[in-house]
Design a protein that fits this description.
152 residues, 5-stranded antiparallel beta sheet, 45% strand, globular
Length: 152
């Protein structure tokens, strides 16, 4: 994605990465959407897993901070929100909070500045699917807001 913003568009200390869409039904490869500093060391990403299901993870300074997985089947268009804030990560799928992490760090201000429909390098694990909407929120939404946002 180009022309979608810069470091001031993304809040590195808290926010939400949201997707309304669906991956192709084929299995066998991960399909990522990531926000990063352009490297694997500082990244937030969610992906459809090659084995099925969905995951949300973050790395700060090369150290895994959060890794939340959802093993349910997502075959149709879903609304997925990944909230991040110091010690307050959550994954929401179709109106339901499916996982949390309450001991994960976040990045310093202005670290995240790139959105890719792939891994942070722009090449690995390209997203293959239908996208109705991808939105970044620059604040962590409340549980009530996330439920409303992701309910189909």
């Amino acid at each position: 994605v180009t022309g979608a913003g810069d470091a001031t568009t993304f809040n590195s200390t808290e926010g939400v990465l949201y997707l309304e869409g669906a991956a192709l039904t084929q299995l066998g490869s991960n399909r990522h959407i990531s926000v990063s500093s352009g490297s694997d060391n500082n990244r937030l990403y969610f992906y459809y897993r090659s084995s099925g299901g969905f995951a949300f993870a973050s790395f700060v300074g090369g150290v895994l901070q959060a890794n939340i997985t959802f093993s349910g089947i997502i075959t149709n268009t879903s609304k997925i929100a990944c909230k991040y804030k110091e010690n307050d990560y959550a994954l929401w799928v179709d109106g339901v909070e499916v996982g949390t992490d309450t001991s994960a760090s976040v990045w310093s201000a202005n670290t995240l500045n790139r959105l890719n429909f792939s891994e942070p390098n722009g090449a690995g694990s390209p997203f293959q699917g239908k996208v109705k909407s991808v939105i970044t929120f620059d604040t962590a939404l409340t549980d009530a807001e996330l439920e409303c946002l992701t309910t189909i």
